[in-house]
């Protein structure tokens, strides 16, 4: 049974190792095309305290880049079963913490609904508040109140129209596999999938290349995906050696179906160990047959790396531009 109050020392090492192994600098994948109006008196007041009451001011929207070690989370999205206590989720924990920091209830929206046990070093979330917060202090203020398996890596101000879901353009996932007859990982066992089979990386690369493009990924999704269309576009898919007997499957795309990356990883794993040929990918696309793809690998090897967004032009900025043209 999962504890609702985690011990502080349990996950901090795993999360720090996740962050240390991230393949890129963890910052938002876009920059706002606008500037906030200056307010010198408010800034001076805020410099003397960490949080400023702002009942007379308009709502401000903040974007957070979030990392979490997903082992003890029931996924990202809040889950409140009927007649049972709420499950521990990354969204639920973070929303509670942020509400305490800004001293008012907030609604937190995340860009990707990662599953139970899946990790993230580049989740993006947003919320709006009437409370004025020095943005340079926000990430630290939130993280200092979070359990050790969750951190806010950065924060910035975005237009009020910003939606982490609909404004998302591209996402990158990474699946880590340790293979061969080597000792199972100990300290990072929660963040890597293990198999005793030897793997042929060139065959896996061959299979990965066949996934690139726009295809109907229905055979690479769980039956309960609940999407009207299963056509998705993969921009990049590759397999790289990250150390001896350890590889990473990296997938960049415009959108993903339920368990899609984990099934892709399972399919490439079977190709690598010789259970399937690389052209089984083509035959799966042609037939739509789930039996021609691999198993759904466990969540522990999967990590959300980053999400790139389009930042909408703020309403105030558009008004000023229209006034200037008139």
Task: Report on the architecture of this protein.
The protein is α+β, with helices and mostly antiparallel strands and 326 residues long. The protein folds into 2 domains: 12-166, Alpha-Beta Plaits (2-Layer Sandwich), CATH 3.30.70.580; 168-305, Alpha-Beta Plaits, CATH 3.30.70.660. 25% of the residues lie in helices and 24% in strands. The chain has 8 helices and 10 strands. The chain has helices at 12-21, 40-47, 90-102, 135-143, 201-209, 260-272, 280-287, 315-325; strands at 60-68, 109-110, 119-129, 150-158, 168-179, 193-195, 213-216, 231-243, 246-253, 302-309. Strands 1, 2, 3, 4, 5, 6, 7, 8, 9 and 10 form a 10-stranded mixed beta sheet that branches. A hairpin with an 8-residue loop joins strand 2 (109-110) and strand 3. Helix 5 (201-209) packs across helix 6. The N and C termini lie far apart (64 Å).
